[in-house]
Design a protein that fits this description.
The protein has 8 helices and 3 strands; from the N terminus they run H-H-H-H-H-H-E-H-E-E-H. It is mainly alpha-helical. Strands 1-3-2 form a 3-stranded antiparallel β-sheet. Strand 2 and strand 3 form a beta hairpin. It is globular, with a radius of gyration of 18 Å. The protein starts with 15 loop residues before the first helix and ends in a 13-residue tail after the last helix.
Length: about 170
């Protein structure tokens, strides 16, 4: 029997499409069968982007087994400013993968404080004054802490990174 030459892509080799599909899979699982604290934020995102329109939030939670991956992909596309998943998928190979990785991290880790703003310009002003990086999420924006190497280059002390057990 021949030995397969397939090797899974390393973190540096993952494509932007693969990254978004992986995030959609994670979100879909959490929305469909995760605990209330994980499912509700995702269900709210689905409703806010009008990826699911036929139910209220409590009704959607009760029938969350009806949420499909296509709903999550549609929501991710609309949050990124595209009309459909198909349009977003065509644009993904041309987008910066580091920006996509940051977007995926925005919605994780409820224990980490995230500074949200109603528009990107306010987030950029805050980031210019206080440090960090403004990232657009739908019509809103969030300021993420600067990476330690970026903070050192800017002459700022690195932001403290919370320990996993804290």
């Amino acid at each position: 029997m021949p030995i397969s030459s397939f090797q899974p892509p390393c973190a540096g080799q993952i494509s932007s499409v693969q990254l978004v599909l992986r995030e959609a899979k994670r979100l879909h699982r959490a929305a469909a069968s995760g605990p209330l604290s994980e499912a509700l934020p995702i269900l709210r995102r689905l409703m806010a982007t009008r990826a699911v329109t036929d139910r209220s939030l409590p009704g959607l939670f009760r029938a969350r087994c009806t949420v499909q991956r296509k709903h999550v992909l549609r929501a991710l596309a609309r949050e990124a400013g595209y009309a459909s998943w198909e349009d977003y998928r065509r644009a993904l190979p041309h987008l910066d993968i580091s920006q996509l990785e940051q977007l995926a991290s925005v919605h994780r880790g409820t224990s980490v404080l995230k500074l949200w703003f109603s528009d990107t310009s306010a987030a950029r002003r805050f980031a210019a004054e206080q440090g960090g990086q403004a990232v657009r999420v739908g019509v809103q924006a969030v300021v993420l802490p600067a990476a330690p190497s970026e903070a050192a280059e800017a002459g700022q002390p690195p932001s403290p990174i919370p320990s996993p057990g804290a």
